[in-house]
């Protein structure tokens, strides 16, 4: 794989992950149960989710729309039509999403590798009366959701790094020209 092709792995990977997540949320919004019973939510929220509470149905639509925006943003970093988008905006979005998703995967936000491992090792007690369900959801999160968000977040941070290291060459209309400046100001 050539260097320019490797540089596109982050944006295209972020777009694919956003499309996959958005497809699942769209399916859930339309009534499918696609992994809805595997969301690591507290018991009372999980019951509302599975009962198709209007708040959760609306959240599925919002998340499907946000995922679509994520696909567009990721592709805007590598496609010619994205050159009109301010680079700093794309850079900020890529870094914020990447850091947020990696933090979620690790467990800084309550779910993730750390929280799941603590629950499964009986260091953190499960909710009263929900021990079996909590352990089952922790396993799903540990094996599916946390790795997915880690991968997705990594793709976003690679995209952010790619954007941060690319500078606009003089005389070029796009900051995606692929040329870098040397210390003397010449390409």
Q: What is the structure about, briefly put?
A:
With 187 residues, the protein is mainly alpha-helical. Helices cover 64% and strands 0% of the residues.
If you had to describe this structure to a student in words, what would you say it looks like?
There is one protein chain. With 187 residues, the chain is mainly α. It has one domain (3-165). The protein is built from seven helices and no strands. It has helices spanning 3-7, 9-29, 43-50, 54-76, 87-106, 113-120, 131-165. It is globular and about 55 Å long. The two termini are 24 Å apart. Mean pLDDT is 86; it is low at 168-187.
Task: List the topology elements.
Blueprint: H1 3-7, H2 9-29, H3 43-50, H4 54-76, H5 87-106, H6 113-120, H7 131-165
Helix pairs in contact: 2-4, 2-7, 5-7, 6-7
- Tally the structural domains: 1
Query: Distance between termini?
Result: 24 Å
Give me the strand/helix succession.
Answer: HHHHHHH
The count of helical stretches stands at 7
Percent of residues in beta strands? under 5%
Structural class: mainly alpha
Bulk shape: globular
Q: What's the Cα radius of gyration?
A: 20 Å
Number of strands: 0
Unreliable spans? 168-187
Fraction of residues in helix: 55-70%
Largest sheet: none
- Report the average pLDDT across residues: 86
Keywords:
7 helices; 187 residues; mainly alpha; single chain; disordered C terminus
């Amino acid at each position: 794989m050539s260097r320019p092709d490797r540089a596109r792995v982050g944006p295209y990977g972020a777009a694919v992950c956003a499309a996959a997540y958005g497809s699942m949320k769209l399916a859930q919004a339309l009534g499918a149960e696609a992994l809805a019973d595997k969301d690591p939510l507290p018991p009372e929220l999980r019951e509302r989710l599975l009962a198709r509470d209007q708040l959760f149905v609306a959240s599925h639509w919002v998340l499907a729309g946000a995922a679509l925006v994520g696909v567009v943003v990721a592709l805007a970093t590598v496609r010619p039509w994205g050159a009109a988008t301010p680079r700093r905006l794309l850079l900020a979005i890529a870094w914020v999403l990447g850091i947020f998703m990696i933090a979620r995967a690790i467990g800084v936000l309550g779910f993730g590798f750390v929280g799941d491992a603590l629950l499964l090792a009986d260091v953190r007690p499960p909710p009263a009366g929900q021990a079996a369900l909590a352990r089952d959801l922790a396993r799903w999160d540990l094996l599916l959701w946390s790795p997915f968000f880690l991968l997705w977040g990594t793709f976003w941070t690679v995209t952010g790094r790619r954007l941060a290291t690319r500078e606009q060459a003089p005389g070029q209309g796009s900051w995606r020209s692929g040329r870098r400046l040397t210390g003397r100001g010449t390409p």
